[in-house]
Amino acid sequence: MVRRTSVMHKDVAREKGVTEQSPLMDKIKALKGLKLSGVAVGSFSYQVMLYYLLKAGIDPQKDVELIGIGAGPAMVLALEQRKVDAFATGTPVPDAAVHRGFGVMIVDNAAGEDPDFSEFMMNSIIIHPDYAKQHPEIVRKVARALVRANRWLAENPAEAAVASMKPFLGRLDDAIILAGLKKVRLGIPPDGRITERASKLTQDFMTKIGALKAPIPYEALVTHDFLPK
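The structure assignment produced for this chain is given below.
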């Protein structure tokens, strides 16, 4: 599941007449006319914002100003100072803006708000078929290690993972990191398998933003041969 969420400055949300409880499409349409940011131009966060603009019929070239402004604390500070009106990035950074009182969550994909991203292939192991044939045991070990990590996250309290996230999110309060972890782990498949729906949702997204010209058959893209039986 995708973990990119979108947050808007509370004053802008008030002017646009939207709240966290507003219908999803109403919140997306409220982005029109605003200054928006992903982490950097071309980044996945930027592409998520682009996807929502196109989905709502908003011209990203004419109807908004879409920029890259940096990651983490830089985005939170930019929103607080009204240098941007809204931004998209990974949880728990948007949650920090909400927690500090100046942000309103517009799309909370970490909590599964948008069904278009419910099984999105956010992180996957991609390997050349020739390498897999030549080194199957290496591929198997990597896949099994990832599955073990997935299961650990699913089976252990979210509190146990906070310390490992501190080096990356050290400026955020532990409570915010914990809240983000509790949401994120809901979208992690314990068995590591990619469903046909996950493949379709991901390719639909890529097609919408112009990153994919034609769909790739599921059988040509996915194998579970290296996962634990």
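Interim note for the steering committee: The first strand starts at residue 4 and ends at 9. The beta strands are 4-9, 35-38, 65-68, 86-90, 103-107.
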